[in-house]
Amino acid sequence: MLLEGPIFSTVFRLSWPNVIIQVAQASTGLIETWYLSRLGTDVLAAMAIVFPVLMLMHTLSGGAFGGGISSAISRAIGANRTEEAHALVLHAVVLCGTLGVASAAVILLFGSDIYRVLGGQGASLKAALTYSNIVFAGMPLLWLMNGLASVIRGTGNLMIPAIGICGGVVILIPLSPMLIFGTGPFPAIGVAGGGVALLVYYFCSTLFFGGYILSGRNAARFKWVPLHRNIFTQIMRVGTLAALSSVVTNATIASATALIGHRFGPAEVAGFGTGARLEYLLVPLVFGVGGTLVSMVGMNTGAGHRHRARVIAFTGAGICFLMAEIMGLTAALAPGLWLHIFSSGPEMIAAGSTYLRIVGPFYGLYGFGFALYFANQGAGTLFWPVIGGIARFLLVAAGGWFILPLVGSVAWLYALIAAGLLLYCLILTGCTLRAGWGKETLPSKQV
Length: 447
Fold this sequence. Notes:
The protein is mainly alpha-helical.
């Protein structure tokens, strides 16, 4: 089906469970933000400065190195290298465990300095550290959860990851308010309760994915094999460049958060952070289709079906454009539908509305370009997609640093963010059209 099935229907059929899983996973942050926003503006501002860092961990573990895992497994299966696909499972576990411990250590040691740079101060900084220290103490669980899900996703099986993540969210939804506000035997522990509930979600999903792979039902099975540098390289070659892209993407929002925090204060940060949270929701929404593109483009590239792989890439990008543009236009026309979910403070609503009205109409272009990023990840050609992300970051960070002191209006920074989305789309489209994805060997069916 992935190598010779009809392209549009195959992309759609494989993507819808992955869209569910990614939206469900992203909703964990939204659910917690909604609950924690009831504790006041300082806590909402705290979540705004922690969220870019936490989302960076999600995108690194699930989208970057997770994509590298899926890409390597899908290419191995497409080329009939079954033993290599089995060996990749153990290597993925070792790599994700190591990176999970390393990322936890960095944030636990330097979190205070990082959040202060992002504009955290006073009560908001204190709340940010309380939440962050608990979540990052269990960060290896997030890395293992996303790494194991990526192993399964790389075989073309997107339903099991959807079931595992959605099941974890079902646990999180009632547990989070119980721990935050106190219910029955649970004491009210405020911000800390949100962090504990998130760790329970990571733990349960990790057990589910690990059990499925150990059961032998996954096409890439767990086997004890000697660790080899070449196998790690299969993951790292794609994962490292993708990680750089993830860092740059999150740094774009983080730099804007820092500029706003230092010049305009907590209320503006809360408004921008809540509005930008919708842009973060685009990442998992596009990744829902992007996970399919990684598998399909990877397998077709491995099998030598270059033209078919390119058609798959632009088909998925078109689907993502429609989804993202509908969301962006809705937010631009009626920003209150989103913002009032989290707060009714007039200053926050005004700040978030300005952001969504300016940036929202450009969401479709970001969805199109980001889908092509995943297609290039599947093919293992990420140099120019990373350049696209860096160009977007430089436009927002450097341009914002230069223009804000001159105009004194945050609307100009939001205009730069919108221009960055357009620039990113143009670069990704151009590099995908020109990418060489291996020797051409046409399958029996093209579409």
